[in-house]
């Protein structure tokens, strides 16, 4: 399964990273 991020909606808050049940999401380049 591929995950695609809609960069116009992503704020870089990290909620997806914290709530992923598989721990497979990591944010490397957070928005400021």
Protein model, in words:
The chain has 32 residues and is mainly alpha-helical. The chain contains 1 helix and no strands.
SSE blueprint and pairings:
Layout: H1 15-19
What tags apply to this protein structure?
32 residues, mainly alpha, 0% strand
- The rounded Rg comes to 10 Å
| Percentage of residues in DSSP E strands | under 5%
Supply the helix-strand structural class: mainly alpha
Percent helix range:
10-25%
Termini separation comes to 28 Å
SS element count, helices: 1
Shape: globular
According to DSSP, the number of beta strands is: 0
Question: Which stretches of 5+ consecutive residues score pLDDT under 50?
Answer: none
Give a quick account of the main beta sheet: strands, pairing sense, barrel closure: none
Q: Averaging pLDDT over every residue, what do you get?
A: 85
N to C succession of SSEs? H
Task: Provide a brief overview of the structure.
With 32 residues, the chain is an all-alpha fold.
